[in-house]
TrEMBL record:
Listed EC numbers: 3.-.-.-
Protein's name according to its UniProt entry: HAD family hydrolase
Matching Pfam families: HAD
Keyword field contains Hydrolase: yes
Keyword Hydrolase: yes
Segments for region (Disordered): 1-20, 231-252
Enzyme's top EC category: hydrolase
Taxonomic source organism: Kineococcus mangrovi
Ranges of Pro residues composition bias in the record: 1-10
UniProt lineage: Bacteria, Bacillati, Actinomycetota, Actinomycetes, Kineosporiales
């Protein structure tokens, strides 16, 4: 017996309003996405690990950029008992404001990228693995704090946990440098926008599932215009995800 075809969607009643277009709500990762914080992270890690007899270099710490502190410490000091790792984490958080913040620099285009959603009626949010007080310190030190409401800044989250927070914030896109950020966007039902300013190249980010890869945040406002148009023509969540699309890296 031939199955009956699926029923056609019911037409919108005459005179009923069309769905309102979704305003862009764009989440941004912090470390190695909005800011180059590698020198300060390395300086703080070196100081903390030296206290337990472990020596590390910038080359050692670079692959861990953007990861949660507990994973970084476990990777750089393997075999350290969990209780001692917690002590090291607390020590890092104590030292980072004095050793790590001053050397942080905003990437070219970061300020313009954070400001861009507001020009389209939307807003930017920041969701980071960094300890929340230090996220605020870095945003303030780099002159980026004014573009994001304090309530829209969240730290201490990584990968899928970021995605849960992004969904709560209504994110339509998430910008990050790490495969974990791509997974966060997927959980949130948002477009995964990757940048190659961290330790992962375009091929790795596309393999992780990024919808688009930018070489610099200077390319972001141009990409955002296409995202806004997508939201305007079809405000459904599937459009926000960029479902079924995979884009090659954009030149920059």
């Amino acid at each position: 017996m031939t199955p009956a075809p699926d029923p056609a969607p019911e037409p919108r009643a005459a005179g009923s309003p069309a769905p309102a277009p979704r305003a862009p709500v764009v989440g941004f990762d912090l470390d190695m996405t909005l800011v180059d914080s590698s020198a300060g992270i390395t300086a703080t890690l070196r100081a903390v690990l030296a206290e337990v007899g472990v020596t590390v270099t910038a080359a050692d710490t670079w692959p861990y950029a953007g990861m949660p502190l507990e994973l970084i410490l476990a990777g750089l000091a393997p075999g350290t008992p969990a209780g001692q790792l917690e002590v090291l984490r607390a020590r890092y958080r104590h030292l980072y404001p004095s050793l790590g913040v001053a050397s942080v620099r905003a990437y070219p285009g970061a300020a313009a990228a954070l400001a861009a959603p507001a020009a389209h009626g939307g807003r930017s949010v920041v969701v980071s693995a960094k300890h929340t007080p230090n996220v605020h310190r870095v945003l303030s030190a780099t002159g980026l704090a004014g573009a994001v409401a304090e309530a829209d800044v969240t730290g201490d989250l990584f990968a899928e946990d970021k995605g849960t927070r992004l969904a709560q914030l209504g994110a339509t896109a998430y910008v990050g440098d790490h495969p974990g950020d791509v997974r966060a966007a997927a959980v949130a039902g948002a477009v995964a926008v990757a940048v190659t300013t961290g330790s992962h190249d375009a091929a790795a980010l596309l393999e992780a599932g990024a919808d688009v890869v930018l070489t610099s945040l200077e390319d972001f406002p141009g990409w955002l215009a296409t995202h806004v148009e997508d939201l305007r023509t079809d405000p459904s969540p599937a459009t926000a995800r960029g479902e079924g699309e995979r884009a090659a890296p954009l030149p920059g």
